[in-house]
Hints:
Blueprint: E1 8-17, E2 20-25, E3 28-36, E4 49-56, E5 62-65, E6 77-84, E7 88-92, E8 99-102, E9 115-122, E10 128-131, E11 149-158, E12 162-167, E13 171-176, E14 189-197, E15 203-206, H1 211-228, E16 232-233, H2 241-248, H3 252-264, E17 268-270, E18 275-277
Parallel strand pairs: 13-15
Antiparallel strand pairs: 1-2, 1-4, 2-3, 4-5, 6-7, 6-9, 7-8, 9-10, 11-12, 11-14, 12-13, 14-15, 16-18, 17-18
Amino acid sequence: MSLRLGEIQRLEIVKKLEFGAYLAEPENVEDRVLLPIKQVPAQAAVGDVMEVFLYKDSKDRLIATTKRPKLIMGEVALLTVAQMGKIGAFLDWGLEKDLLLPFKQQRGKVREGDQVLVSLYVDKSERLCATMNVYEHLLSNSPYQKEDRVTGRVYELSDNFGAFVAVDDKYSALIPKKELFGEVELGQIVNARVIKVNEDGRLQLSVREKAYLQIEKDAEKILELLDSYEGSLPFTDKSAPEVITHETGMSKNEFKRAVGHLLKEKKIQIGEKSIRRV
Length: 278
């Protein structure tokens, strides 16, 4: 089939009628698609070539439009949920018929008004749909280098790998599990540091600062935590790692380094089961 759903194509007007114009590729004029009359330029004539996007209308008929939607095949775009339905969410992508994001293609709970990062695919019924599985469509040729600061959107969480992030909503990145601290949620915007550019161009990120900067930051966080506990924490650097991470969002080693820093500055005292502010 020469007519490709979800793509922008240059097609020739092969017939004009009262209700529109039929378009086709010159070498395959029998395979036609309708461009509704309201989108046919007044001076258009048979033989003219037009750039159009192909999708299906509300009656599942292949149709052409001169409008460029906010998302085409092979791209990734941030779209707004216009409304929720029985089979999924419907996204505003700039065309008369909203784009379906089926429940099976969602990551986390999606609500009306949310902005979701999606790409296009053709379902079993030969209809265009959206998916939040965008990994293969994200770019790996970002301009960023090691130690650059970037902003990205978390689009998938993995117990094995960490948090998958779309930097600038288009470049592929990962915050490895060992670099992931605190609460990170789907759709969350994160500010991170590039710690590695893989051979394939994909980025590895960290939400932590360099060690010497992070110690200062963590120490400040411990002091704030002490204030919230009225000057005394009910655990120490010898407590279980799970307790420390749950209470502080730090690993046990990071907590120990920050506590050591505060001890050296004589800002805290450590008891058998508690840490007190001096």
